[in-house]
């Protein structure tokens, strides 16, 4: 039997506070009045391999109840695969759902892929303003720590976006610094000598970098990306509380730098065009591959999973180097 709990109930026919068991010579009948009937019916069909009796889709609340029952009756392995189709349909659905409940269900059912996907979606739905962000309310004792981890993940995403934006616009800020302002073909902090200037013409300050920087910063402002003061003015239709992590990430992914010809730059220009382009592309790529939510295997490991995770994602460089060293030492010892 897939569930050791059910196996014990049927074998011993013993009543407890949650179940009442009666026996006869023909069968064992287990009564579970405290469990949801629909969830128990679906779980029983899964355990009996009655796939023809399973619905094509179920609401998030029912999936969460099934997950709780699977954990309660210790049949997560048997039930897990059958629930993937429901996770997939909910993930593709455009309807507004309680994402946190699905994160809990994926955690309880040990579904690594959709745990990462729905936890990332929960982070994307979080507001970029701390005073409207909240810790999700756990519904089971097993997910209390998970709620704190997810809230911390949203806070970390907020910080990372601020750092990414600061790094991207840094090349645009440099030209306005007195340290880097310069005259055409003259190094910063130096002034042209009268002998080097055409008669009657004053020295000309180089504006190639500053003009490009102004263009790029203006484009970011027009796209409601920068500065952060525009985030609260931008109403996100999902929550009505201003910019969310997800909506800003989408804007950054769709942003294209405006055309700018810096052919007149001199050898002392900082190269704003190249610097801004490289930082924009780096940020967009890092956002594309970044796991914004949580990895189930890493959560269960209490930090970073030492082995290969079921959901592929990048890990801290310091850990990667340490893990490689440990694996190398292990292989060396086995060879010896």
Structure description:
By secondary structure, the chain is mainly α. It has a domain at 152-289. It is built from 14 helices and two strands, in the order αββααααααααααααα. Strands 1-2 form a two-stranded antiparallel sheet. β1 (20-23) and β2 form a beta hairpin. The chain starts with a helix and ends with a helix. 28% of the residues are buried. The model is unreliable at 14-25 and 318-334 (pLDDT under 50).
Task: Describe the protein's topology.
Layout lengths: L3 H9 L7 E4 L4 E4 L5 H11 L12 H13 L3 H5 L3 H9 L6 H10 L3 H14 L18 H30 L34 H15 L6 H5 L11 H10 L17 H18 L6 H5 L16 H19 L1
Helix pairs in contact: 2-3, 3-6, 6-7, 7-8, 7-11, 8-9, 8-12
Poorly predicted runs are: 14-25, 318-334
How are the strands of the largest sheet arranged? 1-2
Compute the number of strand runs. 2
What fraction, in percent, of the residue positions are helical? 40-55%
β-strand percent reads: under 5%
DSSP summary: helix tally: 14
Q: Averaged pLDDT, please?
A: 86
Q: Globular, elongated, flat, extended or rod-shaped: what is the shape?
A: rod-shaped
- Taking all Cα atoms into account, the compactness measure Rg is 29 Å
Instruction: Report how far apart the termini are.
Output: 45 Å
* Main sheet attributes: strand count, strand direction, barrel closure: 2 strands, antiparallel
In short:
This is BTB domain-containing protein. The protein has 336 residues and is mostly helical.
């Amino acid at each position: 039997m897939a569930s050791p709990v059910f196996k014990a109930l049927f074998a011993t026919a013993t009543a407890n506070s949650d179940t009442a068991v009666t026996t006869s010579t023909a069968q064992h009948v287990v009564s579970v009045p405290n469990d949801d009937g629909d969830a128990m019916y679906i779980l029983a069909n899964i355990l009996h391999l009655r796939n023809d009796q399973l619905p094509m889709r179920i609401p998030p609340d029912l999936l969460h109840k099934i997950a709780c029952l699977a954990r309660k009756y210790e049949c997560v392995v048997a039930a897990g695969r059958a629930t993937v189709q429901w996770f997939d349909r909910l993930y593709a659905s455009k309807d507004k759902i309680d994402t946190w409940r699905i994160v809990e269900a994926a955690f309880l059912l040990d579904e690594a892929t959709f745990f990462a996907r729905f936890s990332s979606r929960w982070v994307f739905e979080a507001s970029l303003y701390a005073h409207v962000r909240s810790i999700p309310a756990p519904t089971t004792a097993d997910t209390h720590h998970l709620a704190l981890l997810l809230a911390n993940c949203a806070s970390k995403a907020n910080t990372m976006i601020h750092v990414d934006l600061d790094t991207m616009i840094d090349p645009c800020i440099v030209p306005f610094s007195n340290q880097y302002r310069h005259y055409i073909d003259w190094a910063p902090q130096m002034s042209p000598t009268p002998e080097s200037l055409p008669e009657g013409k004053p020295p000309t300050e180089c504006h190639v970098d500053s003009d490009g920087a102004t263009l790029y910063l203006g484009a970011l402002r027009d796209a409601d990306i920068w500065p952060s003061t525009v985030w609260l003015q931008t109403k996100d239709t999902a929550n009505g509380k201003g910019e969310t992590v997800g909506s800003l990430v989408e804007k950054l992914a769709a942003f294209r730098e405006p055309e700018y010809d810096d052919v007149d730059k001199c050898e002392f220009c900082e190269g704003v065009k190249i610097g801004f382009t490289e930082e924009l592309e780096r940020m967009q790529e890092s956002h594309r591959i970044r796991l914004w939510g949580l990895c189930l295997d890493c959560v269960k490991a209490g930090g970073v999973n030492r082995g290969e995770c079921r959901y592929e994602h990048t890990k801290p460089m310091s850990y990667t180097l340490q893990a490689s060293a440990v694996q190398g030492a292990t292989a060396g010892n086995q060879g010896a």
